[in-house]
Amino acid sequence: MRFHSTVRGFSIFLLVLGISALVWAAEPTDRIKQTTDKILSIVANPQLKDPSKAPERRRLIRSAVDERFDWEEMARRSLAQFWAKRTPEEKKEFIELYSDLLERTYMSKVEDYSGENVLYERETIDGDYAVVKVKFVTGKNKDIPVDYRLRKKGENWLVYDVSIEGVSLVNNYRRQFGSIITQFSYENLVKKLKEKAEEK
Amino acid sequence: MKTRNVTPALFLLGIVLIPILCIAGDSTMDPFEELAPPDIVPGLEELAFLGLETLDEPFLVAITNIPVQPDTPEEEPLEFIADPLEPINRAFFQFNDRLYFWVLRPVASGYRAVIPQDLRVGVRNFFSNLTTPIRLVSCLLQANFKGAGTETARFLMNSTFGLAGFLDPAKTEFRLQRKEEDLGQTFGVYGLGPVLYLNWPILGPSSLRDTLGYIGDLFLDPQTYLISSYPVNLGVRSYYIINETSLTIGDYEDLKESALDPYTALKDIYHQYRQNKIKER
Questions:
Q1: Which of A20, B108, B178, B239 could disulfide-link to B245, CB 3.0 to 4.6 Å?
Q2: What CATH code is carried by the domain that includes residue A190?
Q3: What range defines the domain where residue A41 resides?
Q4: Average pLDDT over residues A166-175
Q5: Separation CA B144–CA B274 (nearest Å)
Q6: Which residues of A touch B269 (CB under 8 A)?
Q7: What is the pTM of this model?
């Protein structure tokens, strides 16, 4: 009798451990899914389809993205060796300009989203870092593999880099920013970023 | 006495023999061996602390072979591609920019308005099916027998059930994905670096290594042999470019919009993309 209940107790304990381990292992992917689903529901929302509602829709999408993307980390990695020399005000200004640049770039893509399939392929966790491999299936017989790189901050997983077909966004901007700073100056880079914002 | 042209016969013979050889080759391959050759996957050293000293634990390597890249120290110089010909490359970049907006995009837009997307994707599939030998030979040269087998199977299936290559039942029904390989990648796998960046007019971004690969690929491309007249060959290739452009209108505009320096952005995208393709074999 006692033996039975011990075995039962032990197996329930193992089962719970197993489930929680599964949940824990799937966390970064879950977070990405959460954000993607949230954005998709905003885009699909019939109440927000009207062009007059565009600013509100953008605001909602932006706030959903802000929850998942670590803009400061991305900005730091994009400026690379030029980050340390910046004053706190310059850093703040740069993070804002950079995140606005990225927002303008992805916003039009997100709004054009026509419901391509998103396949969550694989996830790798290495301590506080994770990679989630996703595939966007388009109707043109071309699949787009996207890797999200996340870092654990407290209880949350935040994205610090996105690689599309193996091309890292952060590294690409790092190359561009580095080229502009070495050829001209950091001030010139900020000027270019501001000009770009005006273009729209 | 008429001499027979044996090239098509040899080609067909090869197509029949290769899947047999590949199946035989594949059954002796360790399924995980292809995943992480130790000298090619970066980041494997970082996994050493997990106790993965060697490939004796194939299961763990299989799930952790994506380099997680914890921290790129900011001072660490980013791997880059040499660009000693930058002024010429930039000039060609401007040329291609004009060519796209003044010629390619208008023609492709008109074409797109008339021909439905499914047909244009079919054309893309058809050309892709034709260029199987390029991918097949590159797989073999990289000792990727599984990939070579996949490409052969795809060719046979798509040529027969896929209406001479217009459809892709190998992918939709049998989940056999195209193995995008070429000679440039093969040279990369052998250890040849890109050497320097070349931005060709019309053809676009490339490197010295990849240009040599492209020339080699022309010898493997059946179109070179099937089309006897030079102007017709050019015409066919131009049509291919228009068809592809019609399916990717907007991509170049997005690049220009998202980049502060489109020339550098394109160069870096090309470089990262090729490095990744070589790494993933």
A1: B108
A2: 3.10.450.710
A3: 12-197
A4: 93
A5: 18
A6: 167, 172
A7: 0.76
